[in-house]
Amino acid sequence: MEIIEMLLDQMGILILIFARIVGMLLTAPIFSQNNIPTNVKLGFSLILAFILLPIMKVPANLQLDNFFELMLLGSKELLLGMMIGFICYLFFSVVYIAGHMIDMEVGFSMASVLNPMDENDEITLNANLIFTMAVLVFLSVNGHHTLIQALKQSFDIVPLGKLNINGMMIEKLISIFISIFIIAFKFSAPIVVAIFLTNVLLGILARTMPQMNVFVVGAPIKILLGIIVLFVVFPLYIGFFEYIFDTMFEHLWDFLHAIVKG
After folding, report:
1. What is the DSSP letter of 36?
2. Considering the entire predicted model, what is its pTM?
3. β-bridge partners, 124
4. Of 60, 97, 190, 250, which one is least surrounded by beta carbons within 10 A?
C-alpha cells in the first residue's frame, strides 16, 4: 500500500520521466527500429521510468498543479527525449551517407535492399553491409547500455521541466551536421580516392587508346577495385566505428549542456 500511495503522490513526476524515455526510444538508433513492437517499447519505457523514479532529483519549483501544466511539461520532456535520440541517430546516418558515396563511385547505387531501420525505405548494398557492421560494433562495446546511461544522466544535466529552446542549441545542431558530413567523407575516402584514381587512369587510357571502350572495361574494374579496397579497410572500420560512437556521446553531452547554458 505504501508503494501505491507513493506512486500516486509522484504520478506527475513518473509521467514526465516516462515522456522523456519514450521520446528517446522513438528516435534513437536500434531502439526505434520498426521490427520492435510498440508494446515492447512502451513497456520498457515504463519499467525504466519506475527504476529512475526513486533516484530522480526533482526541482523544487516544479509545478504540476493542473492537467494543462502537466501536458505542457510532458510535451517538453517528450521533445527533449526525441532530440537526444535524434542526435544519436544522426551519427548512425554517417554509415548511410558513407555507404551511398561508396556505392555511387563503385557502381552499386542502382541496387538496393530493405532498410533495417525503416521497412518503408531502401538503401544500397554497401550502406546496408556497413550499417549491419556498425550495429554489431555498437552492441559489442555496450553502446546501448551507454545510451541508457546517457538518458539517465540527462535528468541530472537538464532537470525535469527545464527545457528551453535557445540559440546555443541551434548552433550545436549545425556543428553536429557539419561533423557528420566530415566523418562520412573520411569514412568513404579510401574507396572514393581509389575509384577517382581509377577514373583518371581510364581517362588517360581512353586518350591514348581510342579504340578501347572505357565504359565497358571501366565498370567491372571499378566494382572489383571497390570490393578489394573495402575488404582491405574493413578491419580499420571497427576502430573508426568506436571513434564515431565516442564522438556521438561527446556531442550529446555538449548539446545537453547547451540547453542549460542557453
Report:
1. S
2. 0.82
3. 112
4. 60
